[in-house]
Each structure stands twice: as structure tokens, then as C-alpha cells.
Amino acid sequence: MTPSSSIAAPGAVPGHEATDDHGHHPSYLTDGTTVKSWLLTVDHKRIGIMYMAWILLFFLVGGIFALLIRIELLTPGPTIMDAMTYNRVFTLHGIVMIFLFMIPAIPAIFGNFLLPLMLGAKDVAFPRLNLLSLYVYLAGAGFALWGMLNGGLDTGWTFYTPYSAHTTTTVAPVLFGAFIIGFSSILTGMNFIVTTHTMRAPGITWFKMPLMVWALYATSCIQVLATPVIGLLLLLVTAENLFSLGMFDVARGGDPVLFQHLFWFYSHPAVYIMVLPAFGVMSEIVSAFSRKNIFGYRAVAYSSVGIAFVGFFAWGHHMFVSGQSTFNAGVFGVLSMLVGVFTAIKVFNWVGTVYKGAVEFSTPFAYFCGFLFFTVFGGMTGIAVATVSLDVPWHDTYFVVAHFHFIMVGATIMAFLAALHYWFPKMFGKMYHEGWGLVSAALIILGFNATFIPQFLVGNAGMPRRYYEYPERFQALNVASTAGASLLAFGFIIIAVYLTYALIYGERVDNPWNSKGYEWLTLSPPPTHNFIGPQPTYPEEPHFYVDPKKAEGEVSDV
Amino acid sequence: MSSAHVTPGSVPGPKLAAHFASLEVQKHAARLGMWLFLATEILLFAGLFACYAAYRFLFPEAWAASSRSLDLTMGTINTVVLITSSFTAAMAVHYAKEGKNKMVGHMNVLTLLMAMGFLVIKFFEYKHKFHIGTLPGRYYFYEGIQLPGAPLYFTVYFASTALHALHVVIGMTVLAFATVRAYRVGDFSANNYTQVELGSMYWHLVDLVWIFLFPMLYLV
Ligand code: HEM
Ligand SMILES: [Cu+2]
Questions:
Q1: Where does this one sit in the cell (chain B) (predicted)?
Q2: What is the pLDDT of residue B132?
């Protein structure tokens, strides 16, 4: 579809009949233009946009550190920095990417923007708390970044004790910053749960909620249930570092493995905080671009909840080599594989949706294809590393690095970019250039594979993670990986350019995809209180597409 | 929703925020939010309980001996004080529902006094420990119990009671706000008591956590 053919005539969108004038109702973007009207807003849409600005900035910071790592690893010996700097750089990269980008990215930006729209609500349940969680996030980020710039730390993003209790680098402010960010995560999660329970418009029952809402709901449950535990752990390690508490220090009778248990009790579910929203985005996109109702709606909804649930019982697979009993290792291995089963349910339903759909191959759909590949491939390597006998040699090698980048980063980034392109017209009422969208999608998917497939190989050959120097024989694969990373970076630069261009000069559009998602029932960009005039009614299920060519049989997939 | 806005001077009542469909829903949302928040608080302490359980399992004798060194009388008094304060906090909600704002204020003042009492007793317990040297981590110099794991017991003791005390202080702040509002503004009534109720819920949590901590630390 070319952008020009897709400008929806005002009034063509259901629910717009009464209010076919964009001009008379200021959108949320133009309703108040002072700096204060943004900084003190309680509008979930503006809060989402502000999150977007910050999160993209942190993504840039994390990305620059990623490139520094890759450049350093171009040669077996020292390349551009010394060993200590290298330790600090990969720690910074991990912390910024995980705590400041991946965890909040989709829920805080798109969840904030879309959840009320998808529920036909005027806002989230606690708008002021929502604003607070943004500033709490920024305060935490400020704390952490301040600590990183004033000394930095070399523990890796996992803060393993006893090392993190003894290292002379500045651990405490960063740990405390992460604790504060966790607070923000809890507040957002609470807000989303309460919103989903209490703010659904008449007509939206639980099983008429868009799948994105289900995914956000499941994510919020994990956030609320897991984050407090790591909050406590971060506090204890901070105290351990400052006062030598001895909780996790063998020298004082403590147990470092207990730290690992508590850490992974959060951090394993945390990886689902990152991918579940991605799954939600993909469910929306696959149905919008296949022009079909999602195949197996209930199975997709329940599997989100299922992943959230079993995600809590899989943490032990990070400790296969920490002296765990064989029995425990076996149990944790099997429980981990259950996650794979739930993910497979989703994958089959997405593929079932595409099957015989009227597929429209646009940028978001291109990212869906990339996403499917990363999820399936990364998920299968997950099953492989959850097999104890295989994980013992692979543990702490680049194989694990490649596994989690494929599934976690690959899938999340694909979904993030898909969401960005799919909802860009919703958020700004402007359209970007599809041709450039497809080019950059191709570059990014290619670059991603080129970066991490060599890492599977080099890890399998035995190269450990987090090492500054390596034997000659690993160099070719490392160079390949760095080349892939450059391609990836190039793709991101292109996106930044054409989206900025579209923001300013883009064509006015309303619903370029003719999407039937609930969020498109209002204007693009939406007015301040989301709907003008009477609240839209919701007679149909979400993702309700009827293909005129084969109308019969397609609509009753649920 | 303009019909819901309260004009100044009319009967005091809760304000309906523009984004809620009705007062019912708004109250439901506030309560659900509070329950979720309390759940996260319990989970925060659950992490400490897990540490406690692990180390108690590893060092049973040291933990029994260390636990006996605590002052059971002071701990018991504190438990009674907190449970009583939970009762007055509940009474505040009861009076708020009846619109007896003065009584709400009185009850909250009683609760705050008992909270203060709790902290004073805790202070004397801490002072004694500082004196004999059962401080956590690097500052531990107590010679009385020569068992591996004893210092860890006191680390867990200080971590959990300090975190609890922090919650007492936060709870006192929350209650103080409701108190001022009850005395000054006096607009709590049968359909506007959410603030008192949420404050009291928080206070019950503070009480509940202590009810777990007390047998864990003092009685074992
Ligand atoms: C669905 C999305 C998934 C994400 C986002 C994800 C993410 C991650 C991350 C971040 C790590 C590395 C943590 C670190 O040490 O820094 C990791 C390791 C691991 N993952 Fe996954 N994973 C996913 C799926 C799976 C599945 C389905 C399984 C098993 C069936 C699995 C099994 C493992 C195992 C066993 C490890 C530890 C390997 C080791 O350290 O030796 N993962 N994963
Ligand atoms: Cu895991």
C-alpha cells in the first residue's frame, strides 16, 4: 500500500460519523503546547510519548556501548580500550539495555498510549501515579547513570555476589538506581492491572479484549509479583557493599547461591516482561495485516497467562552449574521447556492466522516475519540450553549470549519496531515512507542474524562470554559479528532519519491500514480525552476482519 | 461527566475524576490498587523470609541461640502495642463511615501514639544491641555466641526489623495526613472514606508483617 492511497476520508472510520472535523478538536499533541503542559501532564498518551523520548535516548546510549564492545572484540588483543574499561562497558551496555530499554520499552510507551484506547477508557485508572512512575523511572535512571559515570562498575548486569559486594567500583548507586526503576515498574504494572479490571467500556468483556491488552495484563502481573523480590535483593546487596552485611558472602557464613536464586526468581520472569508485550504486539499486527481474525484467540490469551505463570518456576536453569542437585536441575529443565510449549501455541496460532489470509506485506509485517524467525530459532536454542547435559559446556559461553539475544533482544526489537511503524500514524497522524521502511527492516533483520549467528558458532567452539582477549582462532567469527552489528546500526540510523522526516513532513493520515483494532475507532492522533462525542460501542470482537472474497467460514475462528 | 462535579459549598463528598464511569468504579479501582500494592509489600518481605528460612536451615543451633538472646518482653509488648493500634486504625474507618470526623481524628491520634511507642521500644532494643556488639556485618563484635552463623542471624534481624520500622514510619505519615484532613476539613462520610480506609489497610499490613517477624525472630 502506498501512503497516498491510504488517507482515510474523515468519517470513513466507524465511530467518526458525528465528528468528522479534525480541525475543531485539538489532538492530544496540540492541546497545550507549553513545556509545563507536557511535563506535568496526566494524559496517558503524552506520558507514553515522553517515555518514548527517554527510552529511545537510552537505547542510543546502550547501542553505542554495544558497538564499543564489538569494536574491541575485532582483534584478539587490546583494540581500543583496556580490560577494566571493557568490563565497565559491557556492564553498562547490559544494565542500560535491560533496565532502561527492554523492560519498559513496549509497556511504558505503547502500553501507556494504547491500553486505555483499546479499552475504550478515557485514561488509565491512576493518571497521576502514571506520571509519577515516569519520574521515578527517570530518577532511577539518573542514579544509575550517575554511578556509572562516576567510576562505573564491572560486575556485569547480573551483579553476582560475592564479587559485587567486594569490588571497589561504584556498585551502590547503580544498584539503588535499579531498585528505584523497579518501583516505577511496579507502579505501571499496578496501574495497568487496575485499569484492565475497572475501566473496560461497556461491551468489552474479558474475552473481547484485544490480545495486546491480554499480553500487557500478563506482563503487569509478573511485574507486580516479581519486582519486589529483586527490590529487596538489590537493597541487601547495596547494604552488603556498603557495610559488608555478609548475607551472600561465604567468608561471613553467607551463601552466594542464595543470591542467584533470588536474582533469577526475578530475572527469569523479567525476560518474559520483555517478550510478552512483544507477543501482544505481534498478535495485533498479524491479524491486521492478514486481514483475518486471530486464529485461536483464547489459546493466545491463555498462553500469555500460562507463560507468566510457569515463568516463575524456571529460574533454576540458570544454576545448572552452581552445585545444584541433578534432580533439581532436571525439574528446572522440564519446567523451562513448558515455556517453550506455551510459546509454540502462540506461534502456531500466528501462522494459522497468516494462512489463507490476504497478507499485505508492509513494514510491520516484515518485522513480524523477522520476529517469527527469531522466536522459533531462539526458542529452540532455549530448549537446547535447558537440557542440562548440553548446557554444561555451553554455560557462560557466547552460545548463551547468542541465545538470549536472539530470543529476547531479537524478538523484542522486532516487536518494538513493528509497533513503532504500525502505531506511528495512530500516535502522530502522519505516515512514513514505506519503501524506506522495508529497506531498513531488511537491513536490521539481516544485520541481526549476521551479528548473532557467528556468536552461536564461536560459543559452541568454546569462547567464553565477558572475556576481553581471545585466541586467534576465534577472530574470523568475531569480525563477522562486528560487521553484522555495523549493518544493524546502519538500519537504525535510516529509521531515525525517515521517521523524523515523517514527523515533520509526513502525509496526514487517519487509519492507513484500515485496521479494525479498537484503538483505531478514534481519530489519529486522538483528542485529549480519547473520544469525541459518545463513547464508541463495541459490537464486534477485536481483530474482526471479514474478507469480502471469502466471507464465509473465516469469521468464527474463535 | 460534568454532572458529577461537586459545586463549591454543596454537601461535601468524594469527587469523581473525569475518567471514571462512576463513584462505585472509582472506589473499586482505589481498593484494588491498594490490594495490589500491599501484595508487593508482602513479596518484598517474602524475599527476607526466604533468606531467613535458608540460613535457619543451614545454622539451626546458632539461630536458636541467637534468637534466645533477644529481649522477649520488649518484643511481646511491641506485638501487643501494634495489634492494639491496628484495632484503633480499624475503628477510624468505622467512624469515617458514620461521618464522625472528630472520632476519626482521635482514633488516628491513638494509633500514631502507639506507633511512636513501638518505635521507642525498638530504639531501646537497638541501643542494647549496639552496646553489646551484635551489629550486622563488618561491625559485629559480640563474643557471647560462638557458633558459625550467629552473625548472619543478626544481619537478618537488623535487615528485617529496620525495613519494618521504615514501614512504620511511612504508615505514620499516611495516617498523619488522614488525621489532619479529618480534623481540618472533616469531609469523611458514608460515601467518602476511601482515604481513611486505604491508610488503615496499610497499617494492617505493617501489623501483619510484624506478626510474622515476631515469632520468626523472637520465638523460633
Ligand atoms: C521466551 C523468551 C526467552 C527469553 C527472553 C530468554 C532470555 C534469556 C536470557 C536473558 C538468558 C541469559 C541470562 C544471562 O546469563 O545473562 C537466558 C539464558 C537461558 N535460557 Fe532463555 N530465554 C527465553 C526462552 C527460553 C526457553 C524457552 C528456554 C528453555 C526451554 C530457555 C532456557 C534458558 C537457559 C537454560 C538459560 C541459561 C543458560 C546458561 O546460562 O548456561 N530460555 N535466556
Ligand atoms: Cu531463564
A1: Cell membrane; Membrane
A2: 81
- Please give the single-letter amino acid code of residue A431: M
In this predicted structure, what is the pLDDT of residue B191?
Answer: 82
**Residue A205 belongs to a domain with what CATH number?**
1.20.210.10
Structurally, chain A folds into a number of domains equal to 1
Pick from B17, B47, B155: CB nearest A232: B47
What SS3 state is found at B187? coil
How sure is the predictor about A362, in pLDDT bands with cuts at 50, 70 and 90?
Answer: very high
d(CA A128, CA A125): 9
Q: Which residue of B has its CA nearest to A245?
A: B137
C-alpha R_g of chain B = 21
Range of the domain at A282: 35-555
Chain B residues inside the 8 Å CB shell of A129: 33
- Write out the DSSP string of B58-74: H-HHHHHHHHHTS-HHH
Architecture of the B23-219 domain: Up-down Bundle (1.20)
Atom of ligand 1 nearest to the CA of A307: 1
C-alpha cell at A315: 529460574
pLDDT of residue B218: 87
Pocket lining: A383 vs ligand 1, CB cutoff 6 Å? yes
> CA neighbours within 13 Å on the CB side: how many for A381?
25
DSSP letter, residue A75 = S
| In the predicted structure, residue A22 carries a pLDDT above the cut 60 | no
Per-residue pLDDT band for A549 (boundaries 50, 70, 90) equals low
Using CA atoms, how far residue A498 sits from A73, A146, A420, A495, B164, in Å, is: 31, 32, 13, 5, 53
Higher local confidence (pLDDT), A151 or B166: B166
List chain B domain ranges. Answer: 23-219
* Assigned domain for A15 exists: no
Instruction: Name the residue among A122, A199, A244 with its Cβ closest to that of B138.
Output: A244
Best mutation site among A102, A381, A407, A413 for ligand 1 pocket (most ligand atoms within 8 Å of CB): A407
Average pLDDT over residues A409-418: 95
Beta strand A430-431 pairing with A507-508: antiparallel
String of DSSP letters for A225-285: HHHHHHHHHHHHHHHHHHH---TT-GGGT--HHHHHHHHHHHHHHHHHHHHHHHHHHHHHH
- Residues of chain B neighbouring A529 (CB-CB closer than 8 A): 18-19
Per-window interface: B 55-84 vs A, CB < 8 A? 55, 58-59
Phi, psi of A431, rounded to the nearest 5 degrees = -115, 140
**Which residues partner with A27 through β-bridges?**
A527
Give the ipTM of the model, two decimals please: 0.88
Percent above pLDDT 70 for chain A = 94
Can you tell me the distance from the alpha carbon of B43 to that of A262, in angstroms, rounded to the nearest whole number? 12
Contacts of A496 (CB under 8 A, 6+ apart): none
**Three-class DSSP category at A81:** coil
Alpha-carbon distance A244 to nearest alpha carbon in chain B (angstroms): 5
Helix (H, G, I), strand (E, B) or coil at B140: strand
Question: Which ligand ends up closest to the CA of A408?
Answer: 1
User: Average pLDDT of A381-405?
Assistant: 89
Ligand closest to the CA atom of residue A333: 1
Which residue stretches of chain B have pLDDT < 70? Answer: 1-14
* B127/A contact by beta carbon, under 8 A: no
pTM over 0.80: yes
DSSP B88: H
Residues 6+ apart with CB under 8 A from B190: B97, B98, B99
Cβ(A380) – ligand 1 distance below 6 Å: no
| A·B CB contacts under 8 A | 116
Residue A42 lies in a domain: yes
A25 in any annotated domain: no
Least confident of A170-179, A208-217, A238-247: A238-247
Average pLDDT over residues A159-178: 84
